[in-house]
Amino acid sequence: MTPAIEVKQIHKRFGALQALGGIDLEIDTGEFFALLGPNGAGKTTLINIIAGLTLASSGSARVMGYDVVADYREARRMLGVVPQELVFDPFFTVRETLVIQSGYYGLKNNNSWIEEIIHHLDLTDKADANMRTLSGGMKRRVLVAQALVHKPPVIILDEPTAGVDVELRQALWRFIKRLNHDGHTIVLTTHYLEEAEALCSRVAMLKHGNIVALDSIRNLVNSVSGFLVRLRLSPDILPLSLQSLMSSHEDECYILAIREYSQLESVMAALRMAGAQVLEMQVLQPDLEEVFVKVMGHTENPQPVR
Ligand SMILES: Nc1ncnc2c1ncn2[C@@H]1O[C@H](COP(=O)(O)OP(=O)(O)OP(=O)(O)O)[C@@H](O)[C@H]1O
């Protein structure tokens, strides 16, 4: 089957800066894929190259089999991009904006789909409002709507939930999940790793313009060895024999780094020996954030979902 997106040896230089250092990536039709990485890793540059907005210094990219340079029009028709920045024409209403956007794709009788998008993105009340009167979150909804007017089989969302409220985030993901269920390929960049973990099946992590991890979320999370155990003790003293396992002590709880479950037995025995009573115990499984921190080698960017 033709991949939804196929990127081969993409390099991109901005003067002396190498923004992308040879990206190879294949995303299958129907995938819900996350592109993760700290600020400046090259995610938007890669998206812009796939969207035909930026020319790669070398390498090639295809969308549904169409080369983004040689078959620009076909490739662009296959793709809907929700950009990170709020760019819009302030002179039109929401509905007019979507009708005009349909016109760019030569779609004349697109009204029923436009109404459906307006409905699902909760824009009905604002459909006849001028774009410049909308709040930031509402403008973002319109950007999503604009990307969808031509029912593209591949949809790329570049940080669509940055700074938007819980309600929109949930409405947006409900709609995007439905589109994915209907067969659309979804590519998402986000700094909210819990969001990527909840929605996506596969992830690429970019660092300094290179892919440093590419796998299913399950495999990535399984690759983190060990887990953490959170303990509240009475008295609040960790026996000396367990001090080497301590990762941190916060909110009157000890966080211990455990390699494997069998090690728990000796931890409990050490606590018994020391006469320490366990008031609370919680096993913290590794998550995508832990993988990200390991892969990136620092905690520069991940943020908790608000
Ligand atoms: N037009 C440009 N001219 C010069 N440098 C650029 C240009 N666009 C991007 N860059 C640089 O390329 C690198 C990659 O930027 P890019 O915007 O692709 O990162 P990103 O992963 O999308 O970051 P963020 O998470 O902040 O959106 C950065 O160092 C950036 O400063």
Automatic annotation (TrEMBL):
<keyword id="KW-0813">Transport</keyword>
<keyword id="KW-0547">Nucleotide-binding</keyword>
<dbReference type="InterPro" id="IPR003439">
    <property type="entry name" value="ABC_transporter-like_ATP-bd"/>
</dbReference>
<keyword id="KW-1003">Cell membrane</keyword>
<keyword id="KW-0067">ATP-binding</keyword>
<keyword id="KW-0472">Membrane</keyword>
<dbReference type="GO" id="GO:0005524">
    <property type="term" value="F:ATP binding"/>
</dbReference>
<dbReference type="InterPro" id="IPR003593">
    <property type="entry name" value="AAA+_ATPase"/>
</dbReference>
<dbReference type="GO" id="GO:0016887">
    <property type="term" value="F:ATP hydrolysis activity"/>
</dbReference>
<protein>
    <submittedName>
        <fullName>ABC transporter ATP-binding protein</fullName>
    </submittedName>
</protein>
<feature type="domain" description="ABC transporter">
    <location>
        <begin position="5"/>
        <end position="233"/>
    </location>
</feature>
<dbReference type="InterPro" id="IPR017871">
    <property type="entry name" value="ABC_transporter-like_CS"/>
</dbReference>
<dbReference type="Pfam" id="PF00005">
    <property type="entry name" value="ABC_tran"/>
</dbReference>
<dbReference type="InterPro" id="IPR050763">
    <property type="entry name" value="ABC_transporter_ATP-binding"/>
</dbReference>
<dbReference type="InterPro" id="IPR027417">
    <property type="entry name" value="P-loop_NTPase"/>
</dbReference>
